[in-house]
């Protein structure tokens, strides 16, 4: 039986992730109301002790904390008008994937209808909801986060990124982008390794063994970009640049992609030409924002 001393929660959307979230709240004794457009998906949760609301508005009315976990932003846009009359005084936590701009737009909607808003993103898979293997970045109303932090921590590892509702989406998209950038580069490198007759699995294991060195490097690079002070991480650019022609030629010789290596060489050459050859790899950041409103050529020579 739910513990009625714990705050009631509503979950809108009962796909794999929404259902996992609702089950986690139920498992910790929170009275939980659920709603889904396809009502049959609510049956297993009803058996687990959830109250099933016939409409989204009735589900929202049942709890002070409303968690939205739908397929996409279009689905959110379709549901919001149906709950306008019920959200006043509620805290709406939207865990649906979407852009920073969409998060800010939904926050404006929530404020216009008398609700507090938290945007959140989910970095993990449904089976791991309720464990520290799933990350939940949040942003938006600080008071709402503080009021419901204990409940939200039941879902996984949480972090609050500030009152700008778009920041959780920034965190999510940036984290995912780093993964894809790393992995596609890795696959291109495996093509090179295989073309030279080496065992790609053995090579991958050796690369994996080098990963413990990266956290300190990434942290130092982030600090360098923040401060505009580019120490010679990985060595001075003048030394690093000497490798680039060989790297590019090697890739070309086996038909491996050279796009990223050519970009690195171009950025290094420009930075060196501007008089910053003593700086490190992190200094290439200064060339990435040219034409995009970023400061270019900044940073102190080391």
CATH topological fold name of the largest domain: Rossmann fold
Percent helix, as a range, is 40-55%
Supply the CATH class of the largest domain. Answer: Alpha Beta
Low-confidence stretches: 291-302
- Rg, rounded, reads 24 Å
Order of helices and strands: EHEHEHEHEHEEHEHHHHHH
Structure report:
An 8-stranded mixed beta sheet has the order 3-2-1-4-5-6-7-8, with helices on both faces. 33% of the residues are buried. It folds into 2 domains: 9-170, 3-Layer(aba) Sandwich (Rossmann fold); 217-288, N-(1-d-carboxylethyl)-l-norvaline Dehydrogenase, domain 2, CATH 1.10.1040.10. The protein has helices at 16-27, 43-47, 56-61, 73-83, 100-112, 142-152, 167-195, 200-210, 214-227, 237-254, 259-273, 285-288, and strands at 9-12, 32-35, 51-52, 65-68, 91-94, 116-120, 135-140, 157-160. The chain is 49% helix and 11% strand. Residues 291-302 have low confidence and may be disordered. The protein is α/β, with parallel strands linked by helices and 302 residues long. Strand 4 (65-68), helix 4 and strand 5 (91-94) form a beta-alpha-beta unit.
